[in-house]
Amino acid sequence: MALNFYFILKAIIIAIVEGITEFIPISSTGHMIIVGDIIGFSGTEFTNMFEIVIQLGAILAVVVLYWNKIWTMIKSFFRFEKKGIKFWMVIVVGTIPALILGVIFNDLIDKYLFSAKTVAIGFIVGGILLILTENSYRKRAKHLKVVKDVDEISYVQALKVGIFQCLAMWPGMSRSASTIIGGWVGGLSTAIAAEFSFFLAIPVMIGASGLKLRRFNYATITQTEVVALIVGFIVAFIVALLVVEGFIAFLKKKPMRVFAIYRIFAGFILVALILANVIK
């Protein structure tokens, strides 16, 4: 059977969108849904699975960039050192809320929340939350001791971030934005909140991808779809690799307001397109 290169090209476009948006607080899932609707790459069992699995490709970029830190903490854990044990337990604590809610509500989320309308709401609400929470954080940070190293994150702070991460189950809210907001509430600096969100993404996306892959009906998959999935995974990884370091450098110097304004503006544009029946 001949490959459908037009379909693979669409998959590459979605993968580029994922790689760019996964770690910045504008919602990778939301953008993939919208772009997918525009180019005709949405609404099937395969595209739903594809959009989750390629996020794991982007997360792999974090593993590569932070490999020294990850490997050091793995060795520390198996030496039963306090530092290594605490690092991984903090990640476990931060992952638990999303793990529980994800298992319970996964089917309902797939059925009711993956649409342009819900993404538009998520864009706007998430943007407003970013502005309000960042303003509050900057006022409090002047009087509080802010965590400036991942190793200093407490279990309570990790749980707060994990609870806020659950907001990302609503497409358009953004996992990055949700965890950074949780970090601000918990007393983490912006850069460390973002870095912690990277580490949290590893088990979360492995779990989400595993769930999608386990439930996917492989009897219907085509050769073109297999190639699209492999190529999309690789493209998402490469693009994310280029984006992560630049994003962290930006956070150390600039406020998040620019992303919030973009989200709100994009949300209202999306609402207008939906009302005009350009996007459904």
TrEMBL record:
InterPro entries assigned: UppP (IPR003824)
Species of the source: Clostridium manihotivorum
Catalytic activity: di-trans,octa-cis-undecaprenyl diphosphate + H2O = di-trans,octa-cis-undecaprenyl phosphate + phosphate + H(+)
GO molecular-function terms, A-Z: undecaprenyl-diphosphatase activity
UniProt subcellular location: Cell membrane
Further remark: Bacitracin is thought to be involved in the inhibition of peptidoglycan synthesis by sequestering undecaprenyl diphosphate, thereby reducing the pool of lipid carrier available.
GO CC terms of this entry: plasma membrane
Organism superkingdom: Bacteria
UniProt protein name: Undecaprenyl-diphosphatase
EC class (word): hydrolase
Membrane-protein topology: Multi-pass membrane protein
GO terms under biological process: cell wall organization; peptidoglycan biosynthetic process; regulation of cell shape; response to antibiotic
Similarity comment text for this entry: Belongs to the UppP family.
EC number(s) recorded for this UniProt protein: 3.6.1.27
